[in-house]
Amino acid sequence: MLLSIPSTFGPILASFTVYSLIHRYAAGPSPSPTRLGAVTKATSTLHSTVTTILAVYFLRQCRARWADMDAVGALDSRTKFGTTAAGLHGGRYPDDSANPVLQTRSTLGNAITAIECGYLLQDTISLLHEAYLRHRIAQPNSQRNIRSVLKYADNTLLFHHISIASALLVLHYYIHQDRDRGIYIIVQFLLMNSSTPILNLRWWLRTYHPQRKMLCLSSDITFIMAFYMARVWLVGWIIRGYGKPHGYNSAWKVYLGGMRMPCQLGTGALWLANTSWWTLLVMSVIKRLPQELDRIKKTTGYSRG
């Protein structure tokens, strides 16, 4: 008897298969850890570019259909604290029954999240494969198990991939049950992928062209700006977009007065984590900036005299 796969999970399997084939073809039959890592980053760049383009297209299509929702407070004023909200939450939260930001459903939006989920599952396997190869080279005679292999893995990235992939699998379970909502906001969050190509370009320059100091420094500064826009500012933009139809004109007001506690905790933790990473990135670049500038001066033959 063949295993029956729900139609909502088919695109995830397709995405996983396509990325696996791309990665396998690019890496070759017996790749070194270095080549495998480079191919993983190249695949990451391809994926983040594709999903960013699809996400922008999807979001623009939605906004075009919501032309009457562009004004602040476009929903009836009663829906800010309407009957549905009163019945469920004592009148504290907005009634989102007419808010398209949460109520919109879309086959394209579902497909974009399926592509993301399939890629994350494939990339998780690639990261573990790379860690296995590094462990085998570093300790050829030692016994290999998952704990010893994980010592050679990027565990922060693995946690990131597994947690998001798990959440997307749950989302697609809800889609299968016809109980999904919020696909517009979920796809908005996928715009965080837009900073990944610059991250990988920065890695490529520092790994293969460290002598090109000006380009390396330029990539640092560009990535600082891209990371801020895609992973810090974006959170506030999403929050404001959710509250705009209800009459809120700032992300902070939405966060304090228009969001339920689980959403406050989730978006607050995400913003805090991304802001912390961004702060560490800025501090790291500033710390090594004097040495970078000195090397650039020596390379170009510039002197103060």
- Poorly predicted sequence stretches spanning 5 or more consecutive residues: 77-90
Number of helices: 12
Roughly what fraction of the amino acids lie in strands? under 5%
Helix content: over 70%
Would you give an account of this structure?
By secondary structure, this protein is mostly helical. It is 72% helix and 0% strand. Helix 1 packs antiparallel against helix 2, helix 5 (107-138) packs antiparallel against helix 7 and helix 5 runs parallel beside helix 8 (183-189). The chain is globular and about 60 Å long.
Layout of helices and strands:
Layout: H1 10-27, H2 33-65, H3 83-89, H4 100-103, H5 107-138, H6 146-150, H7 155-176, H8 183-189, H9 196-208, H10 213-243, H11 251-257, H12 261-300
Helix pairs in contact: 1-2, 1-5, 2-5, 2-9, 5-7, 5-8, 9-10, 10-11, 10-12
Features:
305 residues
In short:
The protein contains 12 helices and no strands.
